[in-house]
Design brief:
The chain contains two helices and 25 strands. By secondary structure, the chain is mostly beta strands.
């Protein structure tokens, strides 16, 4: 298993704890922005953290939890009991310098998406209102998006967060593209994590992370619950026939804009399908 593929550490509690320090490896030596944590809680269990210097978006992936944070009681958040219901998620934004606590009302999965905070945004609920499942792509490149906090939503200082549902037999994060240079508006530097789920859960998907010059070229079989780190390069995903794929994307970099460049081998495909 390569440095970019992270398997969950158990089935209950905090099963992912990816920070800039733990993400920094030989394949991702400059990782500095994105953090990703994941809690799998049984009903009645608790989780709590301080945000420190980082802003956080909590995404209730599945189940229900009572959330408090930044000095407020936000009540019970969450509605979908299975992520593949594809209904909009309930989320909570918390700025740096605050804390939060979750108490599971049902068995639940809570993602902790983080990036450097600048104190520019107040705590707020995000969704389910205002999040609409949107189709993107054509043919076997069709997938469905729940934008949580992308560039059009001024919800955060650094974070960009979205959900993607890829039907069985389809490709996603395709045509292959990269966002690994700080040269706005041509391209932006954004680190990215993919939290993968599969339906059925015993299935698998494929993700390749590669650069044009071949200095990075990792092809990974992802299982339900895995996280893939994308420090640079192109990063397409494939869902084999019979296995539906979900992923939660977290991106962050020096500026909160998503601008990318296509891989040379897919430029004609992108022009044809535009």
């Amino acid at each position: 298993m390569g440095d970019l593929l992270r398997r969950p550490a158990g089935t209950v509690g905090k099963v992912h704890d990816i920070t800039p320090d733990t993400a920094r490896t030989a394949l991702s030596p400059n990782w500095s922005y994105v953090g990703f944590g994941l809690y799998r809680l049984k009903a009645g269990q608790r989780a709590a953290e301080e945000t420190g210097t980082r802003e956080v978006i909590l995404v209730i992936v599945e189940g229900k939890a009572r959330l408090s944070g930044a000095g407020q009681d936000w009540g019970v958040l969450g509605e979908r009991m299975d992520v593949f219901e594809k209904t909009p998620p309930h989320c909570l934004y918390l700025p740096n310098g605050t804390d939060w606590q979750a108490v599971a009302e049902t068995d639940c999965v809570i993602a902790v998406c983080s990036a450097p905070g600048k104190g520019g945004h107040a705590a707020r609920r995000i969704g389910p209102e205002g999040i609409t499942l949107t189709q993107r792509g054509k043919g076997t490149n069709t997938r469905y998006i729940n934008n949580i906090a992308m560039e059009a939503e001024d919800y955060a200082d650094s974070l960009l967060v979205t959900e993607v549902f890829t039907p069985a037999g389809h490709w996603s994060s395709y045509p292959s593209h990269r966002h690994d240079e700080d040269d706005f508006p041509r391209i932006t530097y954004l680190e990215e994590t993919y939290y993968h789920r599969l339906n059925p859960a015993n299935g698998f998907g494929v993700q390749r992370v590669y650069t044009d010059d071949g200095t990075l070229d990792e092809c990974m079989a992802v299982r339900d619950g895995d996280v893939v780190l994308v420090p640079r390069g192109h990063h397409p995903c494939g869902a084999p026939y019979g296995f539906e794929m979900y992923y939660l994307n977290v991106m962050a970099g020096p500026r909160r804009n998503w601008r990318f460049q296509l891989a040379p081998e897919v430029e004609e495909i992108a022009r044809r399908d535009a």
